[in-house]
Amino acid sequence: MQDEISERFGKLPETVENLFAIGGIKYLAQKVSVASITQEANRVLISFREGHPLTGEILLRIAAVFGNKISFENNKKFSIKLCCNNMSPGEMLEFINKVLHQLITLL
């Protein structure tokens, strides 16, 4: 759909591209039982539903891929924190997308 709109109207504004990226992220998030994705300053918090499919092995592998750009938290809900220092909104969305794609690949 994004390609069709681009062909018809030319280069899309960044805000419209970001909107398409958010739609893709919502789709991917459903596949790995994400409850919510929130931004806190320079961090993005991906919180998971109870009974999520992530195992310790998957978390170790995802940590190996993204290094110090991610950390884990297990308060009321299990969460992955993404460090997004000096990222534009588009870069942040791309980073979230990469993390979710990697999680899906590892499942």
TrEMBL record:
Chain's gene name: mfd_54
GO BP annotations listed: DNA repair
Species lineage: unclassified sequences, metagenomes, ecological metagenomes
Keyword field contains Hydrolase: yes
Transmembrane segments: none
Keywords, in A-Z order: Hydrolase
Class in the EC hierarchy, top level: hydrolase
Descriptive protein name: Transcription-repair-coupling factor
Pfam families cross-referenced by the UniProt entry: TRCF (PF03461)
Species for this entry: bioreactor metagenome
UniProt KW Cell inner membrane keyword: no
SMART domains attached to this UniProt entry: TRCF
Gene Ontology molecular functions: hydrolase activity
Residue span(s) of domain Transcription-repair-coupling factor C-terminal: 1-64
The EC number(s) this enzyme carries: 3.6.4.-
